[in-house]
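Hey forum,

I'm writing up a methods section and want to include a predicted complex as supplementary material. The small molecule is MTE. I've pasted the protein sequence and the SMILES. Can someone with a working setup run it? I'll credit the forum in the acknowledgements.
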Amino acid sequence: MRAPAHALPRPESFTSRLRGPEVTARVGLWLGICFLIAFVTGLYSHFQQDMPGWLTLPRRPVSLYRVSQGLHVISGTAAVPLLLVKLWSVFPKLFERVDLGNARRLGLQLAERGSIALLISSAIFQLSIGLANTTHWYPWSFSFRSTHYAVAWVVIGSLLVHIAVKLPIIRAAITGPVDPRPSPEPAEPEYADEYAAVPMPSETAPPAGPPTAGLSRRGLLRATWLATGVVVLSTAGATVPLLRKVSVFGVRSGDGPQGVPINKSALAARVTELARDPNYRLELKNGDRTMKLSLDDLTQLPQNTATLPIACVEGWSASGEWRGVRMRDVLSLVDAPDDVDLIATSLQKSGAFRVTRLPSQFVNDPLTLLALELNGEPLSIDHGFPCRLIAPNRPGVLQTKWLAKLEVQA
Ligand SMILES: Nc1nc2c(c(=O)[nH]1)N[C@H]1C(S)=C(S)[C@@H](COP(=O)(O)O)O[C@H]1N2
Ligand SMILES: [Mo]
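Reply by user p_vandermeer:
Happy to help. Structure tokens for the complex are below, copy them as they are.
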């Protein structure tokens, strides 16, 4: 029966055989895996930047944050095509009528729909702002990190409820066949041979006609995996050096001054003049004890090398060979005790990343440098000339450039 033109469609108005729990559950399984990876790596990244007092984060391996944040952005990106296919596969359910006659059923239906509405809207919101962030595009005024963090709990919570509610359907759909089995054709009597081997299902010719014409569900799933693979390959080069050539949409390519991409340039941070000023001095402060060091003074101190990545929260990362003075050695100049935190301030007058607190375990790490050189040359102005902070296993946002002041926290 056709619905009148002005009425909403009914679930039966959608006739594609490709839809079904067999498809929804399989795509959903991978989507769930992506969400779980993004959630765990996201928590790690959040705590890196907002470390609760009870937590000590590891400093080795030095690339842990690079791998974790790379996985975060890759799994979030892979979730986009998966979510689209999954939403398409359940779209007709949107038009199911609620049963107004039965109060108990109505309550259950509303609860189910409410939790799904929350899941879908939070997931779409989360992936959208995450994707925008990887392209360095912030078309909103709220704080990205705290919003992304809060919504992550909404997504993961409503996802768990959703999985719990649908578990019987998911289990049956995943363990059964993807495509409906072709109904066996009755054997023609003259060919019947009771000694002939029974044909394996794959050898059985599919019945002719509409039931198998066109794309099968298996084909749809293959296309979905392929699309997800293409999306990943075309973006993951921002963090996986081997993929740089195929990652046409990699937001940051491998290039940038001295072989390392830049996020904020000196021009954008309005520090060029201050950074190039021949009277530049780095201020050290430990209580009343202060000291001012010129770039020349800094180059006279013992120099060390550390190979450490810059791993931006936005997903790109690159390794560099940094050379400079160990932070511990710098602080010894003002007799800083062993277990103090450090506040590093940039020449920048404003901006979210002009100040960092470096916990004592990083201050004392022999790989933490006040870097003066990158990949064999003095730091370029965009990488933080005259000097910057570089520490192992920390997000890029905390690797403060164009340092003006290092202060022992009282
Ligand atoms: N002073 C200052 N330092 C900063 C930033 C900034 O905006 N201001 N951006 C940070 C971010 S977000 C990243 S990812 C790294 C990038 O370092 P690079 O430009 O040398 O690659 O610098 C960090 N240091
Ligand atoms: Mo960054």
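Some notes you might quote in the supplement: The chain is about 40% helix and 15% strand. The chain has a mean pLDDT of 90.
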